[in-house]
Amino acid sequence: MTPQPRTRTQLPKRTVSIIGTGSYLPERVLTNAELEKMVETSDDWITSRTGIRERRIAAEGEFTSDLAAKAAQSAIENAGITAEEIDLIIIATITPDHFMPSTACIVQTKIGAKRAVCFDISAACSGFLYAVEIAQQFITSHTYNTILVVGADKLSSIVNWKDRNTCVLFGDGAGAAILRHRAHGHGVIATRMGSNGQLAELLQVPGGGCACPITAENAGERLNTIRMEGRETFKHAVTNMVESARQVLDDAGLTPADLACVIPHQANLRIISAVAERLEVPLERIMVNLDRFGNTSAAAVAIALDEANRTGRMKVGDYVLLVVFGGGMTWASSVIQW
């Protein structure tokens, strides 16, 4: 009798681990002192309200795909694999090089991942964790074995440098992870994601798409730059990050006391402190680097994850919580066993 192939549902479910991380930050540093010369603000005002002291700005001719490719190469080296082993590339970004083709396809060429299937996703600052969950589904279903996930954004390209309420917040960068099944390891234990489109106008880029094309008549309105209602965004960010974190910890059967490290979205130190306080997690267990890099959107949590990995903030077997929020509004949280 000819043996029949097993369907995906008959194959044993696989766990999914992050086996390597990487990041890239542009060389140029933009300090608060420099911003004082550009808009009506001060170092004390920025630092006291956000915790940000400086951010990185991509060079002229340096695009999101360049940032992503360099972070990807770093993750590939950290994982000890080759680009040819990658089956799928997912890029989370709100600043793609082009509407078409996808930034993932451009990155594929730049890193030499010839076998990979490629696509982008858009979930603003939540994009990296959304992409990690998508990758997990592909691996657990035996569709793909090795997946590259990158959060990358060149926010300097969509910032209104005359708006002091937003231009002080954002920077450019990319963070990456390689996901694969790892024997004798649990990896991603649980993930929660959420969205509320009714809050879309709190944080948005209103122009540039088909609903509001940029024309000669409206070009001076800078509609293709970030608009934010800061106070309302702050409130919803804290509420949804805390609720999502509690839900995912409950899903994982853990408490905040079990966590070795919490890696939140790097948007505002006041948000991070409020989340830590409500979860009753000591600040020394919270990974913070926004003072040096600002808010890099989808890249922020990925860059912080790479830094935590390379500086020994987590050891094998530790439980790590990643929690994010972004425009949409979107939010997500994941518990990972390192």
Fold blueprint:
Blueprint (H helix, E strand, L loop, with lengths): L16 E8 L3 E4 H5 L6 H8 L3 E4 L6 H16 L8 E5 L10 H9 L5 E5 L5 H14 L5 E9 L9 H4 L4 E9 L6 E9 L7 E2 L22 E2 L1 H23 L6 E6 L4 H11 L10 H4 L4 H13 L8 E8 L3 E8 L1
Structural notes for this entry:
The chain is of the alpha/beta class. It folds into two domains: 177 residues, Peroxisomal Thiolase, Chain A, domain 1 (3-Layer(aba) Sandwich); 150 residues, Peroxisomal Thiolase, Chain A, domain 1. 32% of the residues lie in helices and 23% in strands. It is built from ten helices and 13 strands. A five-stranded mixed sheet has the order 1-7-6-4-5, sandwiched between helices. Helix 4 links the parallel strand 4 and strand 5. Helix 3 crosses helix 4 and helix 7 packs parallel to helix 8. The protein is globular, with a radius of gyration of 20 Å. The termini are far apart. The model has no long low-confidence stretch (mean pLDDT 94).
Brief account:
This protein is of the alpha/beta class. It has 2 domains: 177 residues, Peroxisomal Thiolase, Chain A, domain 1 (3-Layer(aba) Sandwich); 150 residues, Thiolase/Chalcone synthase (Peroxisomal Thiolase, Chain A, domain 1), CATH 3.40.47. It has 10 helices and 13 strands.
Cα Rg: 20 Å
Domain count: the total is: 2
Apparent shape: globular
Distance between the termini: 44 Å
Order of helices and strands: EEHHEHEHEHEHEEEEHEHHHEE
Please, what is the CATH homologous superfamily of the largest domain? Thiolase/Chalcone synthase
The total of helices stands at 10
Main β-sheet: number of strands, strand sense, barrel status?
5 strands, mixed
Q: In CATH's first tier, which class of the largest domain applies?
A: Alpha Beta
Helix fraction bin: 25-40%
**Looking at CATH, which topology of the largest domain would you report?**
Peroxisomal Thiolase, Chain A, domain 1
Low-confidence stretches: none
